[in-house]
Structures are given as C-alpha cells and as structure tokens.
Amino acid sequence: IYNHINYKTGEEAGVKRPCKINLPRLNAVQSDGNIRRLAPEKQILTYLAMTPIQRSNQQEIVELARSGTARDKNVMIALGQSLDNALSPFLYKHSLPPEDYLEFIEESPKLKYTMQCIRTVKEYHEAKNETVSGQIIYANRGKSFFPFIKEYLEKEIGYKTKVKFNKATLDEVEIISSGISQDRKETIKDAFLEGVVKIIIGTATIREGIDLQKKCANIYNLYPDWNPTDIKQLEGRAWRQGNEFGYIRVTMPLVENSMDVFVFQKLDEKMHRINDIWYRGDRGNVLDIESLDPEEVKFALFTNINALVKLQIDREAKDISRKLVILEGQIDTLKRFDFKLRRFYEYREKCMERIGDLVTKYKEFFLTEPPKYELTPWWIAKSPKEQEEFL
Length: 391
Known about the structure:
Layout: E1 19-23, E2 27-29, E3 35-37, E4 47-48, H1 52-66, H2 73-87, H3 101-106, H4 109-127, E5 134-138, H5 146-157, E6 163-165, E7 168-170, E8 173-176, H6 182-193, E9 199-202, E10 216-221, H7 228-235, E11 247-251, E12 254-255, H8 259-278, H9 294-301, H10 305-366, H11 377-380, H12 384-390
Helix pairs in contact: 1-2, 4-5, 8-9
C-alpha cells in the first residue's frame, strides 16, 4: 500500500498538537515508549449504570431484537433504539416526553455526568480568575432535545445569555446542527474561537470541516460512532495546531449493558483492521489504542459473564483467522520468492558462463604476442589514423 499512498500520522509529520487525554483512561504510554496499565488509583473511569427507566426501555428493545432475524429490520431498529436509550431514555420512541430540562438531564447518566464535568471545569477557571475554556458536547441524535441541555447549562451552571460578539447577539451556550444557516454557523464558530461562546452542542455537522481548536479544552462524545475514523475526526476539532492549551480531554461517558458495548466491539475490530493495513516495522499504531482501548472498555461495560466468555472466544477466533490469512499470504510470497530466486541463480550461471567465454576470447584476441587482431582483415583494412583512434 505504501507504493501508492504516502500516509503519515500527525506525529510522523511533525505536527505540534496538545497532549490528548482520552477518558475512560486505563492505560498510558510510559517514558520508555511502552504501553502499561495504570494503577487503579490513577485510572479515570466513565462507566455509568442505567436508570430504572433505561433498564425498562432496554428490556423492551431486547425483546424486539429477539423477535427478529438477521435479515429482519427489527434487529437494526433495535440497535438504533438501544443507542438512543443509552444517551437518554426520552429518545426511545415509546417514552413520554420529559416534564422539563431538569428531568431530561437527571434521567440520563451520560448527560448528568457531562453536566458535572462542565461545572467543575467552569469552577476551576473561575477560582483562578481565568477565562473559562471552551467545551464541545457531541451527540448525533436527539437534536430536538438540545434546548433542554442549553437551558440546564444556563440556569443550573450559570452560563450567560445575550452576549455581544461583533454586531451579533449570542449566548455562551450555542447549538450547531443541520438546521442553522451557514452564516449563523460561522458566527458561532468565530465567537467560540474568540472565547465569547463557551459551549457548542452539536451533531455530525461539527465533526469535520470546522476548526474549533483555539480555546477548546474538552470534548464530550455522548454518542459513540461505529467508525473509528469518525471519532478521530471529532477529536480533530480541538486536538490540532493552534490550540492555546497544552492538554485537551476527550471524554466518552459509557452506559453499562447498553448498545455502547456492541459499538465498542465493532470499534475494536475496525481499529485492529486499520492498524494492520498501515502497520510497518518502523511505526506504531495509526489509531492510538493505548489511550482508548475498545477491548478493555467493552469488557468493563458488560456484566453478563456468559456473554463475555462468548465475546472473548469469538474475538480470539477472529484474531486467529486474521493472523492465519496473513501467514498464508506470507507463505505464498515466500514460495514466489523462492521460485524467482532459483530462476535468478540459473540466469546468474548462464551469465557467468557467457562472461567467461567473452573474457577468454578477449584475452586471445588482444593480449597475445603478437595480438591476433593485427592479423585480421578488418584491422589491416583500417588506415593508420583509424587504428590509432580504435586503440
């Protein structure tokens, strides 16, 4: 693949970025370059238990999935509903709407955890008389409920409304989704870069093509994507050149026994596949599995022992199959190399014979006394000047 694509990671290209910390954080790169598991007291976990409403919803979703087959749309519907339920029980289509913004936040472990994180960041800066850093909340579902999140941040945590930026009037908490105009989106982005807007709540609209790095120190990913490159794109909104902070945190709150487990199973498979493609002896992994290891997160989220054992067996079977395919390819390469090597030695022998013949003839023709060429008709036919030029 390197014959066609000159791929480099940011580090290999010499790009200077902040130090990125992924939460949950179980492992860390040590000074010797090796990845080691952190001591329990140094680990930072973001695993959350379901609320009673979520557990009730999840049971209904499981029953729906069991009623379908691999070819049945019920299975795919259940997958989406389970992811929605992990974010908020009110996203499940059979749930009644929340009474107010407080119920919406309190009944979602992910949102409640995120609000607590945002509060501590704000209080930390205020205690040091510093400008409050920017923070991004990403959720690719439930944008109709984003105003509840905004209202909570304003009324319960104290973010301001009606702040001035150039000629526009904005709030310190703004929403970017597919429903807003490009001019409005650009205004919010510029205000966020200048520290006027403090928090952006966004869908996939903010995942790529928009730079938000200047004053952003935290990203909260509330809806894990199936594709690891989508996660990298989201991180890139703040983890890039030009950020004023030396460290940024990418926090992913995760709900136990939810669809988050299955998403991390797929992330684990895809991250290994991508790293296999780009593997080279002089480089590490393209995707940094040491900071957010889907394998470990997946097992931490799942509490069903029998299901965990089956997951592990399937995981190891796929890993062995993948290695077997690689080894078979290497054996085939060696066979082809061995065939070409034997052809090379045969050709080499013929070349050596031919060179030997030419050397013998050269010596006989030019190095005898007198040289044989002086007696040949082609030499005798040459004029003295032509003979001199030839010699």
